[in-house]
Specification:
Radius of gyration: 12 Å
Largest sheet: none
Oligomer: single chain
Distance between the termini: 24 Å
Shape: globular
Strand content: under 5%
């Protein structure tokens, strides 16, 4: 059986829209969406690691989405 069939399909556009939540003070929504609960919680509590983490995520988003599609993530 193919394990990738069990992983929900992640939409790139929606992940970027959730990233934009940081502009209104809601950090980490994109990480929750990609199945990264603990880092999403860290982002919420620290303001996206003082916004530096948010900027890094903006560049790394395609890789994070691909990882979540494969079922990888932390």
């Amino acid at each position: 059986m193919n394990d990738t069939a069990l992983v929900p399909r992640r939409d790139t556009g929606l992940a970027y829209v959730l990233w934009l939540g940081c502009l209104v003070g809601v950090f980490g929504l994109h990480r929750f969406y990609m199945g990264r609960f603990w880092s999403g919680l860290l982002w919420m509590l620290t303001g996206g690691l003082c916004f530096v983490g948010q900027l890094i995520d903006l560049v790394m988003m395609p890789r994070m989405i691909e990882d979540s599609r494969r079922g990888a993530g932390w």
